[in-house]
Design a protein that fits this description.
Layout lengths: L1 H19 L23 H23 L20 E9 L5 E9 L4 E7 L9 E10 L4 E7 L5 E6 L6 E9 L5 E5 L5 E7 L9 E7 L5
Antiparallel strand pairs: 1-2, 1-10, 2-3, 3-4, 4-5, 5-6, 6-7, 7-8, 8-9, 9-10
Helix pairs in contact: 1-2
Length: 219
């Protein structure tokens, strides 16, 4: 209410100043223009209806500008398949030749995107830890899912996958800062999902595995 009153009062001062100087241009809020019927000299007889009309115009516009936005639309169609991932996950990660670790995976779902943040803990290999960001979407042109990913060390990937008809996303790299490969990610069931990644396209045994379980807390 304080914002509405301040803007209305300022707009009224500017408009009255313009009318007193014989001007009739739109004043106050940039896109607010006065109708021709209100462009008249300001006197005691006309000031009250002019002020009321101005107040109604300003309040109507402010109601549109400051009205609470409706809750985001629930994802539907192909993007709805990502809904089970939403939340926090504690993921026990194993990479061949490296110490095991537990990272925090966080997923948030927009109407057209699944956003992922991976918080990697500090270790001897990563003294400062790492933050990995990824986004998942659906490409209606190719009818495939798309994933982009980048870590703090500037290692990045772009992968695509068909619909997970068997409960598994089978991702194939189409561009990357490292040699192209492939990886699988299961849909969450009973509060858990898994990820397996392969070092080379022809490999049959994964060199990376992660088992993720629901973690308490808020995003």
């Amino acid at each position: 209410m304080g914002i509405t009153f301040t803007l209305w009062r300022s707009e009224m001062r500017l408009w009255q100043f313009g009318l007193q100087n014989g001007r009739s241009e739109g004043l106050g809020i940039g896109f607010l223009a006065k109708p021709a019927s209100l462009r008249q000299p300001l006197d005691h007889a006309s000031s009250r209806p002019v002020a009321w009309a101005s107040m109604k115009s300003v309040l109507a516009i402010l109601a549109l500008c400051f009205a609470a936005e409706p809750a985001g639309a629930a994802p539907d169609g192909p993007i709805a398949v990502f809904e089970p991932y939403v939340g926090r996950w504690a993921c026990a990660e194993h990479t061949d030749g490296q110490p095991d670790r537990v990272s925090l995976f966080r997923f948030g779902l927009d109407p057209s995107l699944l956003r992922e943040t991976i918080l990697v803990p500090k270790s001897k290999l990563l003294p400062r830890g790492d933050v990995i960001n990824a986004t998942f979407a659906f490409d209606a042109r190719t009818h495939r899912y798309v994933e982009t990913e980048m870590g703090g060390d500037a290692v990045w990937y772009v992968s695509t996958a068909p619909a997970p008809t068997d409960g598994v996303f089978r991702w194939t790299d189409i561009a990357a800062a490292t040699p192209l490969s492939h990886w699988n990610m299961t849909l969450p069931q009973h509060g858990a999902f898994t990820i397996e990644a392969y070092n080379k396209p022809e490999d049959k045994t994964p060199n990376y595995r992660a088992t993720c379980k629901r973690a308490p807390g808020r995003l």
